[in-house]
Every structure is written in C-alpha cells, then in structure tokens.
Write a structure and sequence with these properties.
The structure is a homodimer.
Chain A (H helix, E strand, L loop, with lengths): L3 H11 L4 E2 L2 H6 L13 E3 L4 H14 L3 E4 L16 E4 L6 E5 L4 E4 L5 H9 L3 E2 L12 H7 L6 H4 L6 E7 L5 E5 L11 H5 L8 E8 L1 E2 L3 E9 L2 H13 L6 E6 H11 L9 E9 L1 H15 L4 E6 L3 H20 L3 E8 L5 H15 L3 E6 L4 E8 L4 H20 L18 H4 L2 H14 L12 H4 L8
Parallel strand pairs in A: 2-4, 3-4
Antiparallel strand pairs in A: 1-2, 5-6, 6-10, 7-11, 8-9, 8-10, 12-14, 12-15, 13-14, 13-17, 16-18, 17-18
Helix pairs in contact in A: 1-3, 8-12, 9-11, 12-13
Chain lengths: ~475, ~475
C-alpha cells in the first residue's frame, strides 16, 4: 500500500488530475496485449523528465515498485504492474521535439506514437524503418524499451539500430543523458544500447534521439504462392544466398492461408501450401531488375503463382492479406500462444519441420507467419481455453518450441522480449553465469529493485501477488 | 610484483614459452600508437578461452591488473599496462572459425587481423565494412573493444553495428556468451553492445560473431578540390541534405594539402583550400547517376577541379593521396596531438572556423582531415617536442578543441575511445551522474578493478606508477 502522504507528493509533482487511485483507472492500466491482469495501487502521468526524476526519487526512498508504460501493446507483459505499486504512464510526454533534416536526426519524447512519427518524417522525405505491427498504437518509448522489430528489419535493422542517444531517469532518480546527436561517439560505456531492450528495468526513458534515413524512392511488392512450406522456407535462404536483401520478406504457412480463406475471404490456389510477401525498395529503375532476379532464384522451389504489384493499390492489396492474419486468427475463437522465435535463416526449413512435429505431438494446430527474412517467425499455438487438457498441452508445446529453437542456434525472442511470459524459460537460453551477470548489473543500478520488478529474471518472477484471475 | 608461484601457474595454463618476464618482452608490450610507455610485470599469450578464464580467475584471486592487447594500434592507450601487472596478448587466438554464406554471418577469434578478415569475406562476395586506417595491423578484438570506425562508416556504420554476438571472459573468470548468430534477439540485456567500445574494461573478448553484407557490385571514387575550406565543409552537409549517403566522404583541409605537396609530391591547383574524396558504391549502372547528382549539388560551393576515377587504378590514385596523409605529417618531425572529435555534420563549417581560431590563439598549426561524412574529423595539433612552450600550448589547444566540440553538440571521440588520453577530460563531456552510473556498473562487474584499470575514468587514472619517462 502507498501512504496518503506519498499520494499527495505525487499529486504535487504531476498535478492532481494526473494521479489516480480510483479502481476504474487502475483497472485501465492493469493489462496489456498478453491479456494478463495485475492491479496497480496508483497510476501517475508525469509531464516531463523533471517530474519523472522526482517520482523515481520518491519511489526509491519509499521502496515503491514503478512500472513505466507506453501504449500497453507488449506481448510479454513488460508494462504489467506484477507487484502492484505505481504505473507510470508516459502518454503526456508525446512531443516530436525536432526533426533535423540537415543531420538526419530526430529528437522525440517517449509517448510519441510510432506511426505518427513515421508519417511526420516521411512528409519530409525521410524514413524511420522500424515497423512493429502495433505501430498505429505503440509508443516509441515502448519500442525502445522492448527493442521492437517489424517486417522491414530484415533490410533495415531493429529499433536499437536507430537509437543514438537517450535521456533517462535512473531507478535512484538521477537524470542522465547517453549518446547524442552525432553519428559516432565512443566516450564511456554505451548505455544507449544497454537501455534499448532492457524492458524498462534499468531506466525510465524520457527523451529519444533517433537516426533517420533518406526515404527510398520507390518500392515493389510481390506475393509468391508455393505448393509446400518447405519451398517457401528454402526460398528465403535462396534469396539471401544470392546476396539480395529485400526490404521485407514475410512468410505465411498453409494454416495461415487456410485461416485467411475461412475468415477473410482470401482467394488463393487450392494447392497453396505457403506464401511469401517480398518487397524490394530503392531507386525506381532498379526494382524491376531485382524483382526479376528474385523470381528467377526461387522459380524451381514449387512456385504456384506470383503476383507482382504494379501500382500502389495493388501493393496495398497484398499487404491487406498480411494485415488480415491477426484478426483472422482471433476469429477462430481459440487461445493463441503467440511466440516470436528467431533462428538463423538457413535453419528455417528444419525449424518448420520441427514445429509440425510439435503440432502433431500435442495435437494442437500451430499457425506460423512472420519475418522469415531474418529467421523471426511468429508461432501461434492454438488451444481451446475451455479445454484444460489442450491448455496444458499448449504450455508443453511452448517449451518444446523453445527447446527446438535453441537446438537450431536460435533465440526464444526476436522482438517481443522476455517480460513475465518467457521469464520461466530464461535458463533454457542463457547460462547461469549470464543470468548472474545481468542480475549483478541490475542490482548495482537498482539496489532496491523498484523499477519494473518481476520481469526478465525468473527468481523475481516467482510470486506475482497482484495477479487478478 | 607477481609471485613466482603465480608465474608458474600462468606457465601451466599457457605453456612456458607463452609466459615471459624478460625485460625485452615486457618492453615490446609496453607501448602502443600513443607512444606512451608502461612496463608490465609479465606478458602472457593464452591459446583459448579456457586459458583466458583460468588466467582471469587467478588474477581476480591475486588482485593482479590484466591488460588485454590486440595489435597495439590504439590512439588512446587502451592496451597500455598503466598499473603494471599482466599484458594478455590475444595474437594466438587468430582463427576465422566460420564464414556462413547462407546466413551472412562469420565467427572469429579476437586476434584475427581486420584486413585479413575483409579479404577472406570479399573472396566469397561478402563484405565487412568497418575499415579503420590501421586495418592491415589491427585485430578484430581490438576493433570491437574500441568500437573502431573508418571512412566507410558514414554509410555502413561502425564496428558495433556488425557485432551480433560475443564470447567473453568476465573479470571474475566466468565465460559467458552474448547474442548469437540470429539477426534479432531480445532475451536479456544486450551485453554484446555494452562490451563493444568498453575498451577492455568489462570483459576479455574470446570470440566474435559478425554480421556480413553482400559485397556492393561496384564503386566510383572522385576527388573534388575546393577554393576554400568553408565550401568543402558545406558540401558535406549539402550532399546529405540531398539525401545522398556516399560510401565514404573524406575531407582534407588546406594544411593537409600543403603537407602532401611538400612531402608527398601531390600536384594540385595553387588555390586549393580543401578537398573531398567521395566514393559511391552499389549497382554499376546506378553509380554514374549518383556521381552526377553529387557534382550538381556541390558545384556552386567553390569547386576548382574534380577528378572522377573511371578505372580501379584511377580510384587507387585518389586513395593513395588519402593514405599519404599520416606518413606526410610524420615527416614534418613535429609532435602530433591527434584528436578525433565528432560533431553533427551540419556544424562542420562552424567547427572548422573554431579550430582555425584555436590555431591562431595558441600559434600552432592544426591539420584537419578525416571522415567528414559523419562529422568525425581528425584534428592534428602540431607542436615542436623540444619547445616546452609549444607543448604546453598544445595541451591547452586540446582542451579548447574539446570545449568547442562539445559546445557544438559534438563528442570528444568518434572512434578512438577515451583510454588514458581523454580520461582527464571526461567530465567535460559526461555529467557526474553519468560517470557515477558507469563506475557503479564497472565496480559491480569488476569488484577488484583488475581488468584494464586506469582507463576511461579520471580518478582511476591519477597515479600511473608504471609510466616510463
């Protein structure tokens, strides 16, 4: 419980109307995309870095858990207040402070919505590549905390590759700046990259400096349908082996296509076993040639059909298919165990075969799609929530999936992070020495473990007193 | 002093002939490119990670300072054994373990020479962009520890951008793996990037996993001569503002050209005030167009002459000029205070003006050249070593240079690191809170401060008992 005195201080720092202990407000900030729910004691919305610093100083003094929150679109519970305490919503800090066209650099506050930022820079002929599926809602602060990815990462890299500086508040309330607006800088440790993907456990992000690129002149999208999943998986490797790196290289397996046929009216050859969406970008005159090279490379791999978009509208038609996947899956009415494993690209065919075996073994449909170009597949294990046996099997299937992934030199998460969802499996991937090293670091920087406690590390995770069933 | 018992144990770990306390060997490992000199007590050359781990465990137990060393080409003293103790040479661990053409990933040991590695991957049609000037000698382990840069970084990024995984030994002797061979991965803290550029103070690198790119099909080099320095500096900004990012964008000021005329027989218009070497790369048919666009963008900025290379030999002629700079400067017989400041690109003209003022104020020639494309200029303050007044003035000029750089939003080091050379100035750039945060991190991970002590942080730096005058 948080004392009335502390609540009063929080009101002085944020303004009364930005601090709430009302049940309705607390419920609003109790869940995220995992649909798990933990009730905080108080929700605060600071206006600026100074307020964040004062709040952290207070929380450090009173040992109050603090959970920074962007838009709550995370898939692993990064924003969930698993030990109660305080949710710190960053939505008031939502200004684009600068877009410097001379230096291709932008400065933003953490609450800026990713998609809004992309539109703002594209209007100036610039380009911010990271494009998580949630970009219309997700915040840049959340993207940085989780190191978000997206389809374009195969060519352009992930969020971290664009973050060149930060202003943060530490767990003890200090405001520090890391990196800067220069393209290079090697003075002191690279805290910028350490904070990216640290899932809000090391610092509260209050300002972000992002590198931008010139916007590619044009792009060309194609949908390629394969007779079997193996051909599509091999095509991914074949394209890269040819030293072509498309802007996106998205994959849908046969079950994904079935699901799209059933619930989204997709028309596609009956024999379709998988499909790829491939997009190339760059100079206009260059794209036709590259498209042709790709089609040549993959033609012997069981291609049933290819649709090359010649207009923006035709391209949008293809992307509509990709965007329809998640809503389609939802319509099946099943519980979805959504994992984002990543393997070296060349291991994709073998990974897909192993996933099929897991599906057979546990008698559960598994729907695979996602960023095949960088080996990052969204594996959706589907189970009937009302069927305890299926739900238990799904848990076993998740563990089997992680073990198979790691056996192929992969990682349990390409872009979603660990949070609370993968924390119990952490020691499958990281050695005890690695975990100890990370915990030593966390402990030194957050001695009272008040900043986003209960995330990443399995021990911290054991008691989750706040969970609402 | 290190006891005979410890020396015996080191000999058991490395083999007798790879452990030496002989004065001649110790002198060999007492200096680097800073030409400062500190004598170690012992020099060891471990064969593998297991040996490194055993050495670190021993050193941790006996509180012996350990100084990992690549090829000793650093400009800030990163490899210097400033507190005596042990130099750990990594040259035996020099195997390229794997070049995976399907996944565009390589695995190497830290002692592999950068240039050798580049040749090996280029023979397979692949590309490892970071190209520090020392690449024929420098090791990849040293490059990672210092986060080396080079001319191509303007388009391709620095060493860190290619390191996706590491095996390291911690100061307490644990072997841990970070990252991996996948293109994405967000499980746990990003220790990979934390170790890159940490100047060997947090971990000894024993294996490196590097991302590769397809090798660009072709490149085109041009030399553009300007009547004045301001035009060249403005040209850099103008090119980027036009959303063209050349593969390299190197700058030479008038004094650099004078020096090349005097000592390297460079022929260039009398009125030349500065020059740029611009290289574009990519698809062959694309390059002429891009070259033309660049020449159009900069034509009004005082261009006296441009030479566009049409053959490999003509391109090499241009690069010969760039490579002649350092030897030319040496021929002047003056002490060179070589700094590698970096400012936002658009601030280059102003930065150059401020450097000219500093040159006037302290009555010392300052020669500027380097990676203007990313705002990273090598500033060489020249002084007569025999003239105490000049040498003192040079020290003042260095500080004035750093202050001017920081005033323009820059950093004291784009690629050389802090080491011992910039440690006294650290608090000009980083706040006391930032420094404290970094030291807290260092202390938690290296409680006895045995791994490369005396680097980066000014306090540690105060007594340098080993320095040989």
């Amino acid at each position: 419980m948080i004392s009335e005195k502390v609540i009063q201080e929080l009101k002085e720092i944020c303004g009364s109307k930005f601090v709430s202990c009302e049940k309705t407000d607390r419920v609003l900030y109790s869940y995220d995309a995992t649909r798990k729910q933990f009730l905080p004691d108080v929700v605060v919305h600071p206006a600026d870095a100074q307020a964040v610093s004062r709040i952290m100083t207070l929380a450090h003094h009173h040992r109050i858990p603090v959970y920074p929150r962007g838009s709550g679109t995370g898939f692993t519970g990064g924003a969930l207040p698993v030990h109660g305490g305080m949710v710190m919503g960053m939505s008031r800090m939502n200004r684009i402070l600068d877009i410097d066209q001379e230096n291709l650099v932008a400065v933003v506050e953490p609450g800026v919505v990713t998609g809004d930022f992309q539109k703002a820079v594209e209007a100036l002929g610039l380009f911010y590549p990271p494009d998580p599926a949630s970009l219309k809602v997700s915040s840049l602060g959340g993207n940085v905390a989780e190191c978000a990815g997206g389809p374009r990462c195969v060519k352009y890299g992930v969020t971290k590759d664009y973050v060149i500086g930060l202003e943060v508040v530490t767990p003890t309330g200090d405001r520090i700046e890391t990196g800067g607006t220069t393209m290079k800088g090697v003075v002191g440790y690279d805290l910028t990259k350490l904070f990216c993907g640290s899932e809000g456990t090391l610092a509260v992000i209050t300002k972000i400096i992002l590198k931008l690129l010139p916007k590619p002149q044009a792009k060309k999208t194609m949908l390629v349908v394969f007779d079997a999943i193996d051909g599509a998986a091999k095509a991914v490797s074949a394209i890269i082996r040819e030293k072509i790196i498309p802007a996106t290289l998205e994959f849908m397996d046969g079950r994904t296509l079935d699901c799209l046929r059933q619930t989204a009216g997709l028309s596609m050859p009956e024999a379709a076993g998988a499909a790829l969406i491939i997009e190339v970008d760059g100079d206009r005159e260059f794209l036709d040639k590259q498209t042709q090279r790709i089609l040549t490379v993959i033609e012997s791999l069981g291609v049933l059909e290819n649709r090359v978009a010649n207009t923006f509208e035709e391209s949008e038609e293809i992307w509509k298919i990709r965007r329809a996947i998640s809503p389609s899956l939802k319509k099946l009415g099943l519980e979805k165990f959504n994992e984002d494993i990543c393997v070296p690209r060349s291991r994709l065919p073998e990974m897909i075969r192993r996933i099929e075996k897991i599906s057979d073994q546990y008698n559960l449909p598994i729907v695979n799609f996602g960023h095949a170009g960088d080996g990052n597949i969204h594996v959706n294990i589907m189970a009937d929530k009302a069927d305890a046996k299926q739900m238990a099997n799904a848990e076993h299937a998740v563990e089997a999936l992680f073990r198979a992934t790691l056996a192929l030199g992969g990682t349990m998460s390409g872009e979603h992070g660990v949070g609370i969802m993968k924390a119990p499996y952490l020691s499958l991937e990281l050695s005890s020495q690695s975990i100890l090293y990370m915990k030593t670091l966390k402990k030194a920087l957050d001695p009272h473990n008040i900043l986003n406690p209960g995330k990443i590390f399995p021990d911290d995770d054991a008691p989750l007193p706040g969970e609402m069933k």
